[in-house]
């Protein structure tokens, strides 16, 4: 039980360095400084992951009594375990991608980077904190930076979308905090906010326990987002700047899934089993509904955004496998769901990055105005094709592994809803292939013929993400082993 | 009875404030120099604040051997010190602002300053009074100069709002007095809390003790038929209700809220700040004092006294008032286009949140629970007051060259006046309750006290309101930053001067947002010293 400075650094370095950099640095140096910082963060995250996965290093940092009022105590408690380690690594990768994607931001740079790195601190804080109040602190911390990122540097109806995102998220956290307080006042003894202690505790419920579960669950499903609470996501994605889209799709949505696993499932397992039919049904509806809506979209960014709704539905389908009696099935479903978070983070991050580049070059995202990219923009086209294939779950990519695990886990328990959600893959093939066909093949619009393919620096994040996607597709054990360590706290 | 030296020492800050006020008035009829007035005022206020801090941290309050002074009419403890510090800090920021606004208020500057000081002294006495008549006198000393202050703006609105304030506050204060009279008739005492520990021969009564002796059986059920209520029970209820009405008026709770928007809009901005912070916390201080005196009784579980405030009607009606107050404040705030009116409605909404804490105090059964919920409430009040001072302070600086407080007027100011816009935005985030500001953590624990007292439905309403309020608070931020206003930037001089006092306030808001433990420790001690 040694205190780990590495852990604290991962959480606080982005925010502190972001503030210092934005206050003291010259505007010309800004992008380079934050690029360097993002690689440092990636290095730290990889180091943490490596030490955790291969050296059995389990870091904890605790500062006791962050707040104490009489008997009520809140600790400053961070911990790395199997569930959040992959997400932390994903966070490091996407930070690099996001900073690369911000190269073209020239307006109010200092504020931009300040908000972006505060957002990243919030995300790491959510992933690593093991105290309900601390968790909530970081969960709320991330709202305002994203609000500013969308509404100042966004496009289209940016203020509307930002406000919509904010109100949806705040309503979610309002419900969540009632749930947290109920957990606190229901826990026996003098009460605790510590997630570790709560997950082994007998409760004396002050409110029906399924209500508490549902309050927290709904709070997280707004973030996930689950049908019918997904209304904010397409707008926020479409109008956000590229880097914010990457972070939003890659990391913020994962906070929802991670929160359900970490808080709902590990603290209230019996309620989770009780309600898993509903979770499975909602997951299947999200998958199909999201996919159907995606089929109707013609804007590249909206296609990726709506497909996120569909892909996050798979997470719920995977989570519903928890109702099974067989531990193997439970493990398959839950680790499939967690793997889907990582995999979707990488794939969608790449797709948003590429769409951002296309928009920056061609100044349009409408599928019908594009076409023939393969003739001149070979690298972009290949990357877009591979990421599209990964998104629809082609074997050899990480998307295939996660969907396979989810379907295997879900089928044994809820065969009907799982079978329905399998059709999501078919629909995904529909919209992805349609999109690829229109964008990559065909005639290149002559007015674009003077443009050049992306340069080497812009290619770096594409390489990083492509390699990760294919590596995880071939060798998923790299993540699933770690996830299984983490799931031992939930599957007892 | 001749006061002893110790008693005089404990009341020195109030004496300094009153003395400075008088000195300023004398200056007003002799030299009439504005500079001298201002210097006198700043010196007096800072001296009083320093003395209060020294008294609090260095001297006597560590041991509670002098809780009651001046024959038990006043108290000296940590609780009243917190409130006095809030009053004095808002006085100092008010003085800073008056200097900016000196062209917009009356030419009788010394009288203006003098009344401000008298009002502050009234508040400080109100916060520490332990006897209802003293409290009443202090309340009048607070209110009457404030009426004058509101009326001394140069605009027509300011006169109108002064009349409104005068009439409504006179009515509410008379309710308070009537309640006190009833209580005296029933119990034969006007002392809020008894002074049992010190060597004074007379045993002062205690209102709640007195009340519990004076009545025999309170119905526990709301649906008890009227004839089983004996006459003294009805009078007890009436007296408590009257006292509550008088004090809830100060807070701006729902049926008594209508004066707030008009008066806030009409008053000169420094006085608006003073009203919203100091006057409001003065009402809260005495309310808290009365409520907490219940827990002074030895046997807390005694059903006799329990029934006085625990009669379900009182806490339930307070809870309903809280819901109505929150909705009134928040829904009406959405429609405002004037930032002063918006903050007025927001302060009504905040009064609704504060009522949650009061409901929780009334509902607590054991004194440890009461200590918890009231220290949480106290921390919330502390955080809210500092945020509010900071918000008004930066608004006053932003708008110092303009007469109108419409939202359109500060479009794009984020690029013109960097620091004040930043401070205003941070205060708005703190009012919504977004980390890492003090508003987040204090609001969270305030809501937790509501859940612990069994009013989960009230918390659900409060959270709905929290979300609603985000909309209009962020509208301010949006106007400051999102809309660029090239015309304004050319026209107005770029201002990057850092307001140091504003910085100090914001540092309090943020540092205690990250690390709120000292606040909670202090509040816990303060409440414990009252309840023991």
Average predicted confidence as pLDDT of chain B:
80
Radius of gyration of chain A: 21 Å
Please give the count of helices of chain A: 21
Mean pLDDT of chain A: 86
Radius of gyration of chain B: 23 Å
> How large a portion of the residues of chain B is in β-strands, by DSSP E?
under 5%
Quaternary state reads heterodimer
Largest interface: A-B, 36 and 38 residues
- Percent of residues in helices of chain A: over 70%
**How would you describe the shape of chain A?**
globular
Main features:
heterodimer, A: 492 residues, mainly alpha, two-stranded antiparallel sheet, B: 532 residues, 2 strands, 72% helix
Topology:
The complex is a heterodimer of chains A (492) and B (532).
Chain A: H1 5-24, H2 27-55, E1 60-69, E2 72-79, H3 85-101, H4 109-128, H5 132-141, H6 143-153, H7 158-186, H8 195-198, H9 209-223, H10 232-239, H11 242-267, H12 269-274, H13 276-296, H14 300-319, H15 327-362, H16 373-376, H17 378-391, H18 398-413, H19 415-440, H20 456-474, H21 477-487
Antiparallel strand pairs in A: 1-2
Helix pairs in contact in A: 1-2, 1-4, 2-3, 3-4, 3-11, 3-15, 3-20, 4-5, 4-6, 4-11, 5-7, 6-7, 7-9, 7-10, 9-11, 10-14, 11-14, 11-15, 13-14, 13-19, 14-15, 14-18, 14-19, 15-17, 15-18, 15-20, 15-21, 17-19, 17-20, 18-19, 18-20
Chain B: H1 5-10, H2 12-29, H3 34-57, E1 68-69, E2 74-75, H4 78-100, H5 109-128, H6 132-151, H7 156-187, H8 207-214, H9 231-251, H10 259-266, H11 269-292, H12 303-310, H13 312-334, H14 339-363, H15 367-398, H16 418-432, H17 438-452, H18 456-481, H19 486-491, H20 500-514, H21 517-531
Antiparallel strand pairs in B: 1-2
Helix pairs in contact in B: 2-3, 2-5, 3-4, 3-5, 4-5, 4-11, 4-15, 5-6, 5-11, 6-7, 6-11, 7-8, 7-9, 7-10, 8-12, 9-11, 10-11, 10-14, 11-14, 11-15, 13-14, 13-18, 14-15, 14-17, 14-18, 15-16, 15-17, 15-20, 15-21, 16-18, 16-20, 17-18, 17-20
Describe what you observe in this structure.
The complex is a heterodimer of chains A (492) and B (532). Chain A is mainly α and 492 residues long. Chain A has a domain at 275-492. In chain A, 74% of the residues lie in helices and 4% in strands. Chain A has 21 helices and two strands. Chain A has a two-stranded antiparallel ribbon. The longest helix of chain A is centred in the C-terminal third of the chain and has 36 residues, at 327-362. Chain B has 532 residues and is mostly helical. The longest helix of chain B is centred in the N-terminal third of the chain and has 32 residues, at 156-187. The two termini of chain B are 28 Å apart. Chain B is globular. Chain B has a two-stranded antiparallel ribbon. Chain B is built from 21 helices and two strands. The A-B interface holds A 65-72, 133, 136-138, 140-141, 143-144, 147-148, 151-152, 159, 163, 166-167, 170-171, 174-175, 177-178, 181-182, 184-185, 206-207 and B 368, 371-372, 375-376, 429, 434-436, 440-441, 444-445, 447-448, 451-452, 454, 456, 459-460, 463-464, 466-467, 470-471, 474, 478, 481-482, 515-517, 520-521, 523-524.
């Amino acid at each position: 039980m040694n205190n780990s400075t590495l852990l604290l650094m991962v959480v606080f370095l982005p925010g502190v360095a972001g503030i210092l950099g934005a206050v003291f640095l010259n505007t010309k140096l800004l992008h380079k400084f934050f690029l360097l910082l993002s690689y440092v963060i990636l290095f730290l995250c990889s180091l943490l992951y490596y030490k955790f996965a291969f050296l059995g290093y389990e870091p904890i940092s605790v500062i006791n009594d962050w707040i104490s009022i009489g008997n009520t105590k809140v600790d400053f408690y961070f911990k790395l375990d199997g569930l959040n380690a992959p997400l932390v690594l994903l966070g490091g990768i996407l930070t690099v991608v996001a900073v690369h994607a911000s190269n073209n931001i020239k307006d109010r740079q200092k504020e931009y980077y300040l908000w972006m790195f505060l957002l990243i601190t919030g995300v790491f804080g959510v992933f690593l904190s093991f105290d309900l109040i601390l968790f909530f602190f970081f969960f709320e911390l991330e709202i305002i930076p994203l609000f500013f990122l969308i509404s100042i540097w966004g496009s289209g109806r940016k203020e509307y979308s930002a406000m919509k995102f904010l109100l949806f998220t705040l309503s979610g956290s309002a419900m969540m905090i009632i749930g947290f307080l109920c957990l606190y006042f229901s826990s026996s003894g003098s009460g605790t906010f510590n997630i570790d202690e709560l997950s082994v505790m007998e409760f004396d419920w002050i409110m029906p326990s399924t209500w508490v579960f549902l309050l927290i669950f709904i709070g997280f499903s707004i973030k996930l987002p689950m049908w019918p609470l997904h209304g904010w996501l397409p707008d926020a994605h479409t109008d956000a700047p590229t880097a914010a889209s990457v972070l939003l799709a890659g990391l913020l949505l994962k906070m929802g899934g991670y929160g359900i696993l970490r808080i709902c499932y590990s603290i209230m397992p019996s309620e989770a089993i009780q309600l898993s039919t509903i979770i499975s049904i909602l997951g299947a509806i999200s998958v199909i509904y999201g996919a159907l809506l995606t089929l109707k979209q013609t804007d590249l960014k909206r296609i990726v955004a709506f497909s996120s709704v569909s892909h996050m539905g798979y997470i719920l389908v995977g989570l519903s496998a928890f109702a099974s009696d067989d531990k193997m099935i439970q493990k398959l479903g839950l680790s499939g769901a967690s793997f889907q978070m990582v995999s979707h983070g990488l794939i969608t991050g790449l797709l948003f990055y590429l769409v951002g580049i296309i928009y920056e070059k061609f100044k349009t995202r409408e599928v019908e105005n594009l076409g023939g990219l393969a003739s001149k923009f070979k690298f972009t086209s290949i990357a877009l094709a591979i990421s599209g294939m990964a998104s629809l779950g082609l074997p050899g990519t990480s998307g295939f592994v996660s969907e396979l695990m989810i379907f295997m886990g879900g089928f044994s328990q809820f065969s009907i809803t799982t079978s329905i959600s399998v059709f999501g893959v078919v629909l995904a093939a529909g919209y992805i292939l349609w999109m690829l066909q229109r964008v990559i093949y065909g005639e290149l619009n002559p007015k674009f013929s003077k443009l050049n393919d992306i340069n080497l620096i812009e290619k770096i994040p594409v390489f990083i993400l492509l390699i990760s996607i294919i590596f995880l597709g071939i060798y998923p054990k790299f993540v699933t082993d770690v996830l299984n360590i983490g799931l031992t706290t939930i599957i007892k | 009875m001749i006061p002893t030296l110790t008693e005089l020492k404990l009341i020195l800050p109030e004496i300094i404030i009153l003395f400075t006020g008088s000195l300023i008035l004398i200056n007003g009829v002799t030299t009439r120099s504005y500079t001298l007035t201002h210097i006198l005022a700043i010196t007096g206020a800072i001296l009083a604040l320093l003395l209060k801090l020294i008294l609090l941290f260095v001297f006597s309050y560590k041991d509670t051997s002098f809780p009651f002074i001046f024959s038990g009419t006043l108290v000296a403890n940590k609780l009243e010190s917190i409130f006095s510090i809030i009053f004095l800090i808002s006085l100092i920021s008010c003085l800073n602002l008056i200097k900016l606004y000196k062209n917009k208020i009356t030419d009788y500057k010394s009288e203006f300053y003098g009344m401000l000081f008298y009002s502050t002294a009234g508040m400080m006495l109100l916060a520490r009074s332990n006897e209802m008549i003293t409290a009443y006198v202090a309340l009048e000393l607070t209110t009457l100069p404030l009426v004058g202050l509101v009326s001394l703006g140069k605009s027509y609105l300011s006169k109108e709002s002064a009349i409104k304030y005068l009439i409504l506050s006179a009515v509410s204060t008379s309710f308070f007095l009537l309640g006190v009279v009833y209580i005296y008739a029933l119990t034969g005492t006007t002392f809020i809390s008894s002074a049992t520990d010190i060597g004074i021969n007379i045993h002062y009564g205690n209102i709640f003790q007195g009340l519990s002796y004076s009545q025999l059986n309170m119905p526990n059920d709301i649906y008890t038929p009227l004839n089983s209520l004996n006459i003294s029970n009805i009078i007890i209820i009436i007296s408590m209700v009257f006292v509550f009405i008088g004090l809830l008026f100060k807070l701006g709770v729902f049926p008594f809220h209508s004066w707030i928007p008009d008066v806030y809009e009409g008053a000169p901005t420094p006085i608006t700040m003073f009203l919203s912070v100091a006057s409001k916390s003065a009402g809260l201080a005495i309310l808290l004092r009365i409520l907490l005196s219940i827990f002074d009784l030895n046997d807390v579980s005694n059903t006799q006294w329990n029934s006085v405030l625990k009669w379900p009607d009182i806490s339930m009606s307070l809870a309903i008032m809280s819901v109505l107050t929150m909705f009134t404040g928040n829904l009406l705030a959405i429609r405002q286009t004037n930032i002063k009116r918006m903050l007025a409605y927001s302060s009504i909404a905040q009064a609704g949140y504060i009522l949650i804490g009061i409901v929780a105090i009334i509902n607590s059964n054991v004194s440890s629970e009461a200590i918890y919920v009231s220290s949480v409430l106290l921390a919330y009040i502390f955080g809210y007051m500092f945020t509010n001072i900071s918000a008004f302070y930066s608004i006053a600086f932003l708008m110092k060259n303009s007469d109108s407080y419409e939202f359109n007027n500060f479009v794009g100011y984020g690029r013109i006046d960097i620091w004040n816009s930043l401070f205003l935005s941070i205060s708005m985030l703190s009012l919504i309750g977004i980390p890492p500001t003090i508003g987040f953590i204090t609001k969270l624990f305030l809501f937790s006290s509501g859940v612990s007292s069994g009013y989960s439905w009230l918390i659900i309403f409060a959270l709905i309101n929290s979300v609603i309020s985000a909309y209009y608070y962020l509208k301010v931020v949006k106007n400051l930053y999102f809309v660029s206003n090239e015309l304004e930037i050319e026209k107005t001089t770029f201002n990057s001067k850092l307001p140091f006092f504003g910085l100090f306030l914001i540092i309090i808001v943020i540092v205690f947002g990250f690390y709120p433990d000292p606040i909670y420790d202090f509040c816990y001690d303060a409440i414990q010293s009252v309840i023991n």
